[in-house]
Amino acid sequence: MTWSAAQREYMSRALEVAEKGRGQVRPNPLVGCVLVKDGFVIAEGWHDHLGGLHAEQMAIHDAEEKGHNTNGSTAYITLEPCNHFGRTPPCTEALLWAGIGEVIIAHGDPNPLVRGDGISVLEEAGIKVQSGLLENEAAEQMREFLHWCENRRPYVTVKVAIDANGSVDDLSKDAARFTSDECLKHVHNLRKDCCAILVGANTVIRDDPSLTVRLVESERQPIRVVIDPNNRIDPNSKVLNDGFATRHLTSGFRGLPALLDMLGDLEIQRLLVEGGPTTINYFLEEGLVDEFILVQSNAVHTTPVNSNFDLTSFSSVEEKTWGEESVKIYTR
Fold first, then answer.
1. What pLDDT is recorded for position 320?
2. According to the model, what pLDDT value does residue 293 have?
């Protein structure tokens, strides 16, 4: 399929508006929709929050509010429209009701409830449907959703901070953060985009962390998961008493693969591992890490704890800056 520059621009905009739902729609994927008529964008929509309008429905509503007639327009949608009743009615019905003449889709929906049915319903109703425009870009945007649909396990992201020499902690001091305030905001944005945050017992015993989203606006908190097979953490720990959801895994813990299966069944699509080196290395040794975010500070620890992370199995490295810290993001 050969796509025009204008078509690419419209779908790029749909991917851009889809980002407005990041951190707010899981277990649903990010989806954006742009309505075009006579060469002009007449409306935009995105899936904004769980239970809210889907992207197609929001775009149609946006067109109505602006006084535009959607009949005969073309819809550029980042994901195949759903054709089932979930938290909202089927998007295929909304598109048919609005008189959309053509639908261009970036990526098919791998969800077992859909699997191509949305496209066939539209085509049977006489709507022209094309797909595959900026498919790779859409796949990257929805990577955790696609991973979960294929594997029924969460996409595992590890985030860890080290000092200038690769130490994860300074045993000469009480537990304390050693990265900048601006870096911490990036971490909280990362937490917002995850369904669950996991640590081991040692992290809770040493740090007594909250593991919540606080520095950026969020309408939901990720579930905290604490691996504690010997039930060692203080019953007064914040994660057990602050009113937010925590899965405290004690004597029934059956290993990391079983844990990921359980989290997948709970529709946890992205798991953030923020534990210490022992927990992180268990995940690495079993080949269960999909993304490794290494945050390096300029601080120097007096009594260091070396990390010794083996990252040789990762094929791609992206470099960023979070505040005063340099960041390397390793992916497979």
1. 97
2. 98
